[in-house]
């Protein structure tokens, strides 16, 4: 009889232990469901320096002189009309690419908003208006980094004119990186319009 009582007591303790464990497990699961979703972690990474981007666009140049971009209201209006809708920009810088006194073209470094943070990229335009391969200098988003892929960046190489820079038609999208692709393409359209309005007719010296 004593042995039976001991066995019953052990079973009750074990079952009670399982019950407590199950309650704690369920409580933890409910807490996880009620907790606010974690914010995506932005991964800031620098892939190329400005100097390296300049050399990539115009390897034959022996020096680069920075240009002050100052648009008057009429020029800004024309550029805006030509470029179309734009994402937020943080900064835009430009340099003349020179070999001796010969102007080879311009290198532009721009920053546009991706989904949540800025994307820094560079592109060159030669004196005929022909673009080079787009280079991604810094990418700070947690998603959409596929735009760093060679296939996507090469879509800009050889483009001339805004009529060949239409997102979704000329510049294809990448699934999972739609905003990054669209905003960088829009930024390049602004650069192309800026070159067309303010820099295309400048003397080659």
What does it look like?
The chain has 205 residues and is α+β, with helices and mostly antiparallel strands. It has 2 domains: 35 residues; 155 residues, no CATH class. It is 38% helix and 21% strand. The chain is built from 5 helices and 6 strands, in the order αβαβαββββαα. A 6-stranded antiparallel β-sheet has the order 1-6-5-4-3-2, sandwiched between helices. The N and C termini lie far apart (110 Å). The N terminus is likely disordered.
What are the SSEs and their pairings?
Blueprint: H1 2-34, E1 45-46, H2 50-57, E2 63-67, H3 73-83, E3 89-99, E4 102-113, E5 118-126, E6 135-139, H4 150-153, H5 178-199
Antiparallel strand pairs: 1-6, 2-3, 3-4, 4-5, 5-6
Helix pairs in contact: 3-5
Report a brief summary of the structure.
With 205 residues, this protein is α+β, with helices and mostly antiparallel strands. It folds into 2 domains: 1-35; 45-199, no CATH class. The protein contains 5 helices and 6 strands; from the N terminus they run αβαβαββββαα.
């Amino acid at each position: 009889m004593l042995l039976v009582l001991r066995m019953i007591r052990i079973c009750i303790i074990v079952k009670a232990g399982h019950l407590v464990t199950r309650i704690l497990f369920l409580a933890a699961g409910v807490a996880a469901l009620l907790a606010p979703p974690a914010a995506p972690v932005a991964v800031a990474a620098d892939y190329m320096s400005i100097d390296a981007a300049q050399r990539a666009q115009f390897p034959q140049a022996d020096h680069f002189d920075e240009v002050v971009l100052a648009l008057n209201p009429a020029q800004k209006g024309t550029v805006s009309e030509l470029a179309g809708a734009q994402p937020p920009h943080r900064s835009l810088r430009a340099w003349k690419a020179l070999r001796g006194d010969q102007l080879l073209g311009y290198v532009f470094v721009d920053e546009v908003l991706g989904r949540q943070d800025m994307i820094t990229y560079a592109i060159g335009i030669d004196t005929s208006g022909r673009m080079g391969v787009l280079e991604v200098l810094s990418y700070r988003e947690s998603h959409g980094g596929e735009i760093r892929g060679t296939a996507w960046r090469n879509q800009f190489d050889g483009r001339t004119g805004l009529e060949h820079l239409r997102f979704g038609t000329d510049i294809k999208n990448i699934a999972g990186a739609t905003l990054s692709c669209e905003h960088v393409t829009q930024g390049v359209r602004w650069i192309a319009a800026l070159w067309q309005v303010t820099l295309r007719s400048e003397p080659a010296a």
